[in-house]
Amino acid sequence: MLKQIHNIGILAHVDSGKTTLTEQLLYLSGSIRQAGSVDEGTAATDSMSIEKKRGISVRSASACIEWKNTKINIIDTPGHVDFAGEVERALSALDYAVVIVSAVEGVRAHTENILKSLENAKIPRLIFINKTDRAGADISTVLKELKSVTDTSYIEINKPINTGNEEVKIISYSENEFSTYATEILADINVKAEEAYLNEEVIYIEEIKNIIREEILNCTLSPVLYGSAKHGIGVKELADALVEYMPSAEHKATEELCGIIYKIEHDKQNGKISHVRLFGGKISTRDEVRILTSDNSAPSVSENDAVDEDEKPKPKEKVSQIKTYNGAKLGDSGLVAGGDIAALCGLPSAKAGNFIGSLVQGTASKLVYPFLRVRVTPADGDERKLPELAGALSQLSDEEPYIDAKWENGQKEITISTTGKIQLEVLETLLKERYSLDASFSPPTVIYKETPSTVGFARASYTMPKPCWAVVEFKFEPMPRGYGVSYHGRLPSNQCFYRYQSHIRTSFNSCLEQGLYGWEVTDFKCTLVGGEHHTIHTHPLDFFVCTPMAFMNGLQETGSTILEPLLKIRVTAPAELSGKLLSEIVKMGGEYDSPVTHSQSVTLEAIVPVATSMDFPTWLAVISSGKAVLNQSFYGYRECRDSLEHINPRRGVNPLDRAKWILWARGAYSAE
């Protein structure tokens, strides 16, 4: 019988060797007869045709190995930043992460974001420094970069010798050598180790290992191992370290049924498949489970709290089949228990990022901020294919919610969010291969947002034509950038029934998608300050008609400020390009810190608008003849500083057109 279960994610920047390491772990454990190759398209966890063709992972893939009486569930995640949504969802399913860093390229932009996200989410991590056999490997520089990114301490579990040639070897410390070394490293973060070090004592090996496990679980320490995944060097030592030092699933165990859906896929034979990490409870075939979103919360208890929008429990859905992993393949199983990973068939409403049973606490911080929008149309221009295309993109949105496909019946185009060019190429391939649909994608446009400009009130009354009666009044208050949206206020039930206040809140959340200029509305506080129903004339749907009118009336009163997305960029380029770089950043409307000059290069950090910097990577590559290195990440939103009018065409009828809106909301008018 297995002693324990580990659920791990293998994370890194693209081309660092994640999938290769997964293959080697599968081979080491005997799960596969031969380690596959990413370049040759034979990797067990790269099953999609586009993954085999391009030699990169675009979806997370799961596998399972058994090592030293321990079951290790592995989630191999994509490394390209366009697919960071897969990584973000996987983080919530992990007991810990294995972060791969190339000994040649060092800590790259996406790896830096991953490490910071792991630190913010308090997820333990182990660092595997790969490609130590390659020419140009520089381990000391990589360690310095790791220490500069996070506040975590690092301890080497093994050490490489003969770095830089094909004969590199990974050797282990002797017990005495390791105890002495570990006591010194741990003295900075552990009281017992500090006392031993100051007294010139060495802690015995078993006790030092217990301290290491404790500090890893506390996320104050990360073990570092070295190797070459391509040649299988250091892989056994890595597997040993996972079992020896890293925390098992029992550290996140709950008594109640609780799990997170980290991946959705669609199969011709089994339909929708939900890949779930279960934290507690158990699920058997034909069990009914409740699907929850992150917006679901416990009912309000304070008179000052908002009335919760979910006054009734979510309906349950039946699990038709359960599959668990054996190596890289799924096999039928009738049961999944807490601590394990499985694929559940059925669950028609499930989406990636949803929860099962009850909410999982402490999810990871965001890695993805789609700030580009693309219009999608049938390639041949045949508008009759729009509903089928919209249905396919809606299904793909279940798998990757950040796609956020939107279409109103009668519109001649569908819009989706995207994180980059490669993601669009993958979508184009999936539409063609899975749905036999050819689609055209417009050039990407920037996703702006809007926020109320001043404090103001939002009012509307819907009392004609009878029978109807609904009155809604909000107070809008602008908040700082990055605040998001909060909803408050609870009226006496005799003034407005609680179930109607629940309808108001649900409708309010839907209103946020389109503001005065058609963009998502954010960074404000909304308080329900007034509302009224009629015991005879009010219909339950009246507040779904009235609330959008109040919402738009409020934005019209307060005015709406357009917000533009920003990128944080870091450029390292030949020193002679410093002047041109600063000039280009100013031209883009960016703000920069003082450049840091090295012997023959300059490093510059700046904040630039997305809209003006879309061509910057190409410009930089040309001006530097490919010698410059660019790292960029999402920074946030600020008030738009250009003088252009940024309007996003509205989907459906605008509630400001009161007469038409009421007819449309009551089903008496078509927007086509």
Q: Give the helix level as a range of percent.
A: 25-40%
Tally the helices: what do you get? 17
Rounded average pLDDT: 89
**Got a strand count?**
33
* Low-pLDDT segments: 297-303
Domain count: 5
Question: Which tags fit this structure?
Answer:
Elongation Factor Tu (Ef-tu), domain 3; single chain; Rossmann fold; 17 helices; 5 domains; seven-stranded mixed β-sheet; 672 residues; alpha+beta; Alpha-Beta Plaits
Explain the overall architecture.
With 672 residues, the chain is an alpha+beta fold. It folds into five domains: 4-167 and 219-252, 3-Layer(aba) Sandwich (Rossmann fold); 258-356, Elongation Factor Tu (Ef-tu), domain 3; 372-446, Alpha-Beta Plaits (2-Layer Sandwich); 450-558, Ribosomal Protein S5, domain 2 (2-Layer Sandwich), CATH 3.30.230.10; 562-639, Alpha-Beta Plaits. The chain is 27% helix and 30% strand. The chain has 17 helices and 33 strands. The strands form seven sheets. A seven-stranded mixed beta sheet has the order 2-3-1-4-5-9-6, sandwiched between helices. Strands 23, 27, 29, 30, 31, 32 and 33 form a seven-stranded mixed beta sheet that branches. A six-stranded antiparallel beta barrel has the order 10-11-17-14-13-18. A hairpin with a 3-residue loop joins β31 (596-597) and β32. The protein is globular.
